[in-house]
User: Fold this.
Amino acid sequence: MKQDLLELEKKAGYQFHDRRLLERAMTHKSYINEAHMEKYESNERLEFLGDAVLELVTSEFLFQDEAKFPEGELTRMRASIVCEPALAFCARQLDLGGYLRLGKGEEATGGRNRDSLTSDALEALIGAIYMDGGFTNAKEFIHKVVLSDLENKKLFFDSKTILQEVVQARFRDQRVTYRLMGEEGPDHDKSFRTAVCIGDEIYGTGTGHTKKRAEQEAAYHALLELKKQEMK
Assistant:
């Protein structure tokens, strides 16, 4: 593993009694395959468990916090919280990709930064905490890492849509456009830099391993800039 798991425990706010569970949660199947280990020793089984715990805790949170919403709306909100990009965003708060045990091939192709791997690792970590410390500790971790600051996270995930709506309401005759400012890195691990313009003026920039993520980040920064201008 690239970084010390003791450090990860501190970030997670949970100390394992059985650290083998934490090690397994950070072990990707590519590492298992290259090391000729048994398939069940990867983090996939813990991911399966963590996914169920996450869905239950999120459902309970929404049921209590959003008392007036019908079942359909609660389902939509839950789906947006536990989707891959949202969980990958939360995983980046812990720098979870840095702790993964990956095969050489997965490592070489930028696996540490791949949303699918880091979101799965977060679910596996939830499963590991549940197995080691029970439901209460897993719930506490989920509330701290996934269910905190939801308004800000929603702004990030829906930033392109929200920016379009804000511009239509405030600027009317201006269009939102995205410009690719540059890209760097090898084909398997590229980083894109994008600017978002309202009319001809740049309001925000963003970087990401996909053009879509770079555009989302640019839109997010544009929204923050518009909010700042509004407060002047």
